[in-house]
Amino acid sequence: ELRFDAVEIDRKWQERWERDGIYRVDDNDHRPKWFEMTMYPYPSGDLHIGHWYAMAPSDAHARFRRMQGYNVLHPIGFDAFGLPAENAAISRGIHPYEWTMSNVENMRRQLRSMGTVYDWEREVVCCLPEYYRWNQWFFTKLYERGLAYRAKAPVVWCPSCQTVLANEQVLNGVCERCETTITRRDFEQWFFRITDYADELLDFDTLEEWPDKILTMQRNWIGRSEGVDIGFDISDYGIEEREIRTFTTRIDTIFGVTFLVLAPEHPLVSKLTSDSRRAEVEAYVGQARASSEIDRLSADRDKTGVFIGAYARNRLSNEQVPIYVADYVLTTYGTGAVMGVPAHDQRDYDFARKYRLPVRTVIAPITWDGREPTEAFIGDGFMTNSGAYEGMTNEEGIEAIAKDVEKRGWGHRTVTYRLRDWLISRQRYWGTPIPMVYCDECGVQPVPEADLPVLLPEDAEFRPTGESPLAINESFVNTECPKCGGPGRRETDTMDTFMDSSWYMLRYCTPQFSDGPFEPQATSDWMPVQQYTGGAEHAVMHLLYSRFFIKSLRDMGMLDIDEPFLRLFNQGVILGSDHEKMSKSRGNVVNPDDVVGQVGADAVRCFLMFIGPWDQGGPWSDEGINGVVRWLNRAWNLVEHDPAQLDDSATDTVTVRETQRILHQTIRKCYEDLDKFKFNTTIASLMELVNHLSRVWNDGSIDSATWRESIEKFLLMLAPIAPHVAEEWWERAGHGYSIHQQSFPSWDEELAAEDELTLVVQVNGRLRDRITVPASIEDDDARERALESPKVQSHIDGQDRAERRVRPRPPGQRGGGL
Ligand code: ANZ
Ligand code: ZN
């Protein structure tokens, strides 16, 4: 039970802050700028507790930066395009715009109820033309620069709904709507050439503080491999191609090649397949195209494949090896063909065992007994069965073979990336129309700047028709060619919504600017974002795309920075009280509105920050909420006390000194912990301070000046965490409005220093050492410290600790003996 009306306090101050505009951000403020962002939410309907967990602590951190004296920009917006709005339109007959904007409205209210510092005049809502017109503008700029291009790419296709499916709409290989097995189709689609930036994206040097885990994920996602592109001779077949090119990182194993494998989509499959193998090969290829890359790559999946009835010659060993088609080779990686070396690659080993292909060891482990291995040996060793390279280490072998292969023109050293170009096209309605026009005379033409935005038409067909919903809107599709004025047809795909989030940080800097996506001067003053916070699930897509975006704008001369986000912090996940993920089906979802309606926003904020380290998350608990409520009551108690009641003549100097020390230590601790997002330990130290102050009030051993100072600084430390009660109590304690325009208190190192004393350590009655310890040390710690002393240890050798006699220390004196 709260002893004060938190809900009323919330309402009162939220209104007043808003009215007074205390969080309005001024670009021209003279204080140093600090741009801190939390990932903007998708307007799914209700702000759930996970949103609170992302946003309340980040708000506390931004508030802390304000109190440190920065001009802080901590904005919010809505990631408002995307598939769920369209699904709502299909299932409930609401227009995506209506659905989205009513959710936005509701979530704005909920965000306000958190007591956040957002400057609502800087809100960004991506589905509005004033935002997405700049997506279109950027698209045309990227196109001019050759960074946007069109190519055929497979989409997931439901043969029964006759429609393209998003990955989220595929469950275990079937369409989520009709449960038909999905297939793939090739469509002309738009790409951004992010691969041009692959090497630069691997350079994290100018980032200041990103979690290692995220850097590793980006590194793996980009997947840079150095290797050799080497050709196998097929000139006997009399077709145009004279060789099969394969990419290998292990050219040292070339003498161990016992077969070649082509990806099912490889163009040479149909050209090389023999008549007698054709039916089987075609059946296999058809089936492989239906399964996803993830399935195909999975290591424990059974390797399958079909011999195509043809052979290729290994030019180094002069051997003919059989050619297979197998789905564990991907068409999109390397050359789409692999030299099979079963002795030294596990996938090849599994494949060879299954199809009874020879396994030939060519790298000998140092302890090899010469017998045939039972699994691939992937380590380093000596070259064996390898012609002229016999006896080299395999590292030397890589160098020597690569050099020889290049000299003879059979191949060349190369670098391959896992990273693919960014597929931008979505065959969807609720997104930014791609601003391109097709003309029979002039080909593909970008919509000129003066004709932007290309508005998303209001009327659209949401039932699946087999085409993008915009394609059947004749008045949208038919337009003039921007170049010749003749009849043109608009592109009917819309953009991936990661386009929106790739540059929203720029829009936040000057959100009302209408002559361009952002005003260059103010934006370069704010950028890059000093601190970004959000979920680790965005490790690769969003965080890589936005890095690419900033670099490409830099290269177009629009910005002078290399990275969008200097520091990144990933919060953890908040679980149900049963320690399971919150979900409707488990019935463990906590609705923050209800809790806030009972105990106010601050108790919820404090609870979320107290449950554990922010990056680790933790379970919801009513018990925990109650604990925080009790603590806030105790704090309220302190604020209620009238310091005039204290009798300054009864003051105990030891208590005063101790109080100052605890106060200044707390300030130091809170300052250091808030800086590093350690909210839980910040709150824990504030709790200790409250305990101490309660005790000395009850003793009556504190003077009124120290008391006043302690309460004042306590409230300032509480302000970023519990902004409403801090403001209310600040006013009550007689300070001016607003606590949120005060500085964070500073501490005095001397006052924070521990008093020290010298312990005299005796062993069996004889003095052995003197050690310096903090005056507040507990007996057990003192004993530990004494035992650690080398001088003491040399006199207690061989004695079990439990047998040691510990002499009780004399009354009134600190010290211990052994
Ligand atoms: C022969 C070999 C022998 C290989 C050996 C490895 C070990 P990373 O490091 O990930 O780049 N590979 C090449 N293209 C492929 C494709 N399209 N689909 C599936 N696998 C492909 O992997 C490079 C290795 O993956 C290449 O080196 C190739 O197998 C395989 F003892 O070549 B290796
Ligand atoms: Zn034309």
- What level of helicity do the residues show? 25-40%
Distance between the termini: 50 Å
Q: Return residue spans where pLDDT drops below 50 for at least 5 consecutive residues.
A: 800-818
Strand line-up of the largest beta sheet? 2-1-26-27
Q: What's the overall average pLDDT, rounded? A: 92
Bound molecules: ligand ANZ, zinc ion
| Largest sheet features | 4 strands, parallel
The whole-angstrom Rg is: 34 Å
CATH topology of the domain at 224-417: Isoleucyl-tRNA Synthetase, domain 2
Region (Disordered): 781-818
Family: Belongs to the class-I aminoacyl-tRNA synthetase family.
Catalytic activity: tRNA(Leu) + L-leucine + ATP = L-leucyl-tRNA(Leu) + AMP + diphosphate
GO molecular function: aminoacyl-tRNA deacylase activity; ATP binding; leucine-tRNA ligase activity
